[in-house]
Amino acid sequence: MALPDRPSAAIVGDDKDVVTSPREIPAQVAQPRRDIQALRAVAVALVVVYHSWPQRLTGGYVGVDVFLVISGFLITLHLLERPIRSAKDLFSFWSRRIRRLIPAATLVLVTTLAASIVWLPQTVHERVAKEVLASAFYVENWLLALTSTDYLATDQLQSPTQHYWSLSVEEQFYIVWPVLIALALLVCRRRGLSLRFPPLLVIGVVSLASLAFSAWFTREDAGQAYFVTTTRVWELGVGAAVAAAVHAGLRARGAVVRSLLVWGGLAAILWSAMAFTDETSFPGVAALVPTLGTAAVIAARSDDLRTGPRRLWSGRHVQWLGDVSYSVYLWHWPAIVIAPFVLDEDDMRAWQKCVLIAGVLCLSGLSKRWVEEPFRFAPKLTQSVRRSFVLLGACLALSAGLAGLALWHGQRVTESAATVVVDPSARCVGADFFRTAACATRDMPLLTTPVAAAKDKPEVYSDGCWNERPFTRRKVCGYGPRSTPVRIALYGNSHAGAWFPPLHTLARERGWRIDTYLTSECYSVDVPISFNPPEIGANCQAWNDWTRQRINSGGYDLVVMSDRTLQPLVGVPANRKTAVAQQAYRRVLEGFVRQGLRVLVIRDTPDAGGNVPDCVARYADDLTRCGIDVDKGLEPDPLTSAALQGGFPAGAVSTLDATNLLCQTGRCPAVVGGLITYFDHGHMTTQYSMTLYPEVASAVTKALRP
Q1: What is the pTM of this model?
Q2: How buried is 644 (Cβ within 10 angstroms: 0-12 exposed, 13-18 middle, 19+ buried)?
Q3: Which residues contact 394 (CB under 8 A, 6 or more apart)?
Q4: Sign for the pseudo-dihedral over CA of 567, 572, 573, 578
Q5: In whole angstroms, how far apart are CA 448 and each of 615, 625, 681?
Q6: 596 by DSSP, 3-state: which?
Q7: Backbone angles phi, psi at 529, to 5 degrees
Q8: How far is the CA of 91 from the CAs of 98, 136, 167, 386, 666, in angstroms?
Q9: In DSSP terms, which residues pair with 676 in a beta bridge?
Q10: Is the dihedral of CA 389, 233, 131, 108 positive or negative?
Q11: For the chain, which has fewer Cβ within 10 Å, the N-terminal or C-terminal residue?
Q12: Are strands 598-602 and 558-562 parallel, antiparallel or unpaired?
């Protein structure tokens, strides 16, 4: 999945899943369209391969779009052929969706929650419980949209229920769409209009509006746009438009035309699966390729087309995979996320992944046979709408109840961990373990917990002091009296924010004031930084221009700077980025010095390469697996290089490098002096940063010295 790794879409039932009595089951289910079943098989295969080997099939996430088009087609065709004329019809429609989708989805949710508690690190239990709760009520896509812009969440373990985002989109569609179609048909009947074309007009208006919004929002915020319902409705609408056209009697005719449609559509799907990457601006306009390709395949009606892929469509294994695709979708992602923890493997081998996929297929077949079909066709349920809704309530109660219990327990663990108080000035604690030679022979116990470390963020996080994407905000947090002998500006991205605890403590002790000018990702240069879309890069540059003007005119005595220089620069080759960034930082430093400001540059901390609390929780018995070689973790820091370049007036620019208090003997451990160093991959916990207080206090005092 992209962003966080791009997940797949939900898979709905056949176009023949409406029954009124058990006797109708064989006739209704026996002859689904083979081309649609095959499309399901192709789509779920793309998704599973992409999630297993994302570097091999870089655009396999377009299986999402294939499934959405299929869903829009089947549901809309059903609504047009069996119009909803009353509340009873509407609730009957919803009850069929409940029986078709909810029992299997609930089984997977409950199983996944239990497996997560058993095998996943304790640091993610609370988050998994929240997502199970959101998935049970089919709002997972909105929860993921809210967290998609969190830069600090990019290294978190992916949730094993993350794939329910697409189920959420479809369930929301199923609630609103039948009402909209029913209203359109009602207006037509009351005005004496034909029922053939008005639905197509309504579908077109809604879909075009959603497509326009999707194109705009994807440019503005691709992370959120990927998940929200409003950017996806048009994809369901593409399938709905084909259904409305079929219902109105508009069909592709002629073997040549139908052959071009089916082969061209299939080529579009496969091309996008191979050509698209995580860098593709998606969904937006790019999603037209797989969606229109799917619509073309459906419109071709190739089951009886001799020049079409009939033999491929009709293969027994292809049809079986299409038939169990919903179960495959439900089970495959939790298996992919949890299996490495069960096997104690950081990276699963190809053969292990193949065995895992085979297991998922077997489990899916069993789930289809013993869960989906019994609930879907149970006489007591099919004959009673009320019982179907009772089933819904029971499933929601089970999922929500267990998730709520897990969430309550997780919060209890967090509260318990928060009560542990560590004295950062104690001997051999934290950085003092490396600072004091005598501590080397001392065996320090773990003084904190991974759960507590994951939440141990500087105060600027809870105070909302960040200016995040799209960098249109101008938030400055001030700490300390306005009338003070010393004013300090803390300027940089999140790696500057990591130094706030000792800086704030020093300022509070001495009656100084500190103002924060903090962003995420955007770093403090005077040249354009590359973001997607480009407008975000322009906003980042505008933020930096505004910040420098504000600092230059703010009457500050000292500017403390630190940055992780990660994002590429516009028009600058990767092998030239560090040199160009160093020149840009140099100009920024010179600009501050010309205004009479002193600057303290703090060298960026090493990157651990993965989430540290998660790793400590997973390998508590062997913490050496959580460290990283300093050569791998220590990234180039052109800001510090610019400060060390020399040529400034005496005392104008100084530096602090605390790398030796995070790494020694060529290794950067995850736990130093009993404290977990980072709350994620590279941002220090408040507890650990406070053990660096002596170095920070000395550097600031020296920088302010006349």
Answers
A1: 0.88
A2: middle
A3: none
A4: negative
A5: 14, 18, 17
A6: coil
A7: -100, 140
A8: 10, 20, 19, 9, 66
A9: 671
A10: positive
A11: C
A12: parallel
| 614 close to 124: Cβ distance less than 8 angstroms | yes
Task: Determine if residue 674 is left, alpha or beta; phi over 0 gives left, psi from -120 to 50 gives alpha, anything else beta.
Answer: left
Distance CA 67, CA 677 (A): 44
* Closest of 635, 539, 551, 554 to residue 589, by C-alpha: 551
Contact predicate 282/533, CB 8 Å: no
DSSP H helical segments within 553-576, as ranges? none
Token pair 């924060």 is found at: 516
**pLDDT tens per residue across span 395-430:** 999 999 999 999 998 888 777 766 667 788 889 999
Q: What is the DSSP string of 103-160?
A: HHHHHHHHHHHHHHHHHS-GGGHHHHHHHHHHHHTT-HHHHHHHHTT-GGGTTSPPPT
Helices (H), 153-197: 164-190
Amino acid identity for residue 454 in this structure: A
Where do we find the tokens 């009351």? 190
Tokens standing for residue 573: 């080759």
Q: Where are the alpha helices (DSSP H) in 301-431?
A: 310-314, 316-323, 325-343, 350-367, 373-377, 379-382, 385-418
The CA-based diameter of the chain, rounded to the nearest angstrom, is: 94
How distant, in Å, are the alpha carbons of 26, 36, 70, 261, 395 from that of 313?
21, 9, 16, 15, 35
Nearest to 501, CA basis, from 684, 668, 698: 684
- Nearest CA-CA partner of 652 in 583, 584, 559: 559
Residues 531-568 pLDDT 10s: 887 888 999 999 999 999 999 999 999 999 999 999 99
Counting every residue, how long is the chain?
A: 706
